């Protein structure tokens, strides 16, 4: 071992105790005191280091998605989509890529129960030969808002009241009563899928629209969808109370135990694509994250499968310090002008520089597994071994060169600077269709959850009327049912 390239690892564990500088510790039980009863000496370096380190054991939790579980595995291409993308890891059926996945709830804290009604995060870091590709999606295929400008607001409204620290329906319904586009996400939130059985039985969706680019430079809008091979399962209210009351980490435990028992969770990956030249053919905007793409006109195309076959070794290193970003893409996959996605491309790296520090991408779980090189690496906690004398580019002393050019988005951008809302498509059509696709008992549970939410004593008559009028526009009978149960006259 070259001592100067040494990186701390449990592989180098000493058989006896040392302090963090490697000095032997002959007593880890008793502080160094004057006489047998104290006082304690400040020169007890080991004690001070032990206390000081403990006091710093926590890092800021994720501002959203703080509660989560992760596991490792691989992705295997099963269908050729090389006509759509030049992404190396999707180059041919049979190609496998190692990965780590993290599932999460969105709103509550790191230690909160996993039975709460909330979207579930579905994030996958693919360690490809051309760098990492982070898929950062949710189990619901749509989001409550469609402009990054409103993200902090919608999250604040769903998070606990800043005064009481309790999640309160009146705050959610108040904020969203300004956003009819949220209606569609509520057909998932207050549906049975709002409380999944565990992480193995959830779907995943990119929600946002990305772009696939092929070797010739042709781009297609794309949405990604994960379907669990064991099916989608949910907990109804009584079951959720029972499960959550018995074990507040039941989903983390289920994931861990399933993998440990060799019952490996698996998902199939599908895509839907739209040729950007045809984007005006639809009655919705393909860049609107509150709309789904109807599968009858834009069918799901199979791509591959994801298998989780290895548990993590350490929760802190491989869950807390795991850092995803929708900005982390590989050649052949790019962003779209989706206004939510554009905000996200910035926000994740930004939060991780705060949460983990500027060198968060050097942490083993986040670092690419392929060769990588650039000159931005100093700053807090740079532990990468470097011995070059040239840390600028270009240089006649350093043979490093630009990577080979790969196709980038061919789109031409033009237009006036504007701040505006989407002007295409109805916010009521898709929610109404989804409600009508359900069996009567599922509709009834949805109505009951809405009646319960709208019965919050702090929901005003005005807010209640807005929601009833919106649901009436989505589906007349649904609006009528809510109005009857709440004793309100539906008015559009
Ligand atoms: C403008 C909109 C959004 C912003 C600004 C935003 C911001 C964030 C931030 C700051 C985090 C914490 C990251 C960390 O500390 O590691 C996060 C986590 C996450 N977000 Fe978003 N988010 C947005 C929309 C969305 C949407 C639409 C989805 C689903 C498609 C999503 C899925 C996730 C997931 C799954 C995580 C957890 C990743 C993990 O497991 O570490 N977010 N988001």
Kindly, what is the distance between the CA atoms of the first and last residues, rounded to a whole number of angstroms?
75 Å
Number of strands: 10
What count of helical segments does DSSP give?
Answer: 12
Please state the average pLDDT score.
96
Rg: 26 Å
Biggest sheet details: 10 strands, antiparallel
Q: What small molecules are bound in this structure?
A: protoporphyrin IX containing FE
Low-pLDDT segments, ≥5 res: none
Order of helices and strands: HEEEEHHHEEEHHEEHEHHHHH
Helical coverage, percent range: 25-40%
**Which class do the helix and strand fractions yield?**
alpha+beta
Instruction: Note the beta-strand portion.
Output: 15-25%
- What spatial form do the alpha-carbon principal axes imply? globular
Keywords: Heme, Hydrogen peroxide, Iron, Metal-binding, Oxidoreductase, Peroxidase, Peroxisome
Domain Catalase core: 18-401
Cofactor: heme
Protein name: Catalase
Q: Characteristics of this structure?
A:
492 residues, alpha+beta, ten-stranded antiparallel beta sheet, 10 strands, globular, binds protoporphyrin IX containing FE
How would you describe this structure to a colleague?
Residues 18-401 form the Catalase core domain. The active site is at residues 65, 138. Its EC number is 1.11.1.6. Belongs to the catalase family. It contains twelve helices and ten strands. By secondary structure, it is α+β, with helices and mostly antiparallel strands. Strands 1, 2, 3, 4, 5, 6, 7, 8, 9 and 10 form a ten-stranded antiparallel β-sheet that branches. Strand 3 and strand 4 form a beta hairpin. The structure holds protoporphyrin IX containing FE.
